[in-house]
UniProtKB/TrEMBL annotation:
Organism field: Paenibacillus montanisoli
Stored CDD domains: Rieske_RO_ferredoxin
InterPro entries: MocE_2FeS, Rieske_2Fe-2S, Rieske_2Fe-2S_sf
Alphabetical keyword list: 2Fe-2S, Iron, Iron-sulfur, Metal-binding
Name the UniProt record assigns to this protein: Rieske family ferredoxin
Domain Rieske: 8-104
Length: 107
């Protein structure tokens, strides 16, 4: 059985400020795409695993995204849940930059 993976263009790399996050919708799915202080890029599912609230409205602090609804926190580099009320990790996605464009790989 062969798995098909797709690289989807998100935006220009400069469209995300350092230590920030943007929302990216593709089809019926939503993602959060992050830029670290070192200008590395990361992607996770867009909604908090505690309640379906979009993380792009949250606060980025270092490698942590804080959900704006109940202040749960995740490490966006690994998806790990870091502070209650969240206890389920986020799914993460590979990211690449080519020709100053950000792409995420979704299955």
């Amino acid at each position: 059985m062969s798995l098909t993976t797709n690289w989807i263009e998100v935006c220009d790399k400069e469209d995300i400020d350092e230590e920030d996050v943007i929302r990216f919708d593709h089809g019926n799915r939503t993602f959060a795409v992050y830029r670290s202080a070192d200008s590395d890029y990361y992607a996770t599912d867009g909604y908090c695993t505690h309640e379906k609230f979009h993380l792009a409205n949250g606060l980025v602090m270092g490698n942590i995204i804080e959900c704006p609804k109940h202040n749960g926190r995740f490490d966006y580099t690994s998806g790990a849940a870091k502070r209650a009320p969240v206890c389920v990790d986020l799914k993460t996605y590979p990211v690449k930059v080519e020709n100053d464009k950000i792409f995420i790989q979704i299955d």
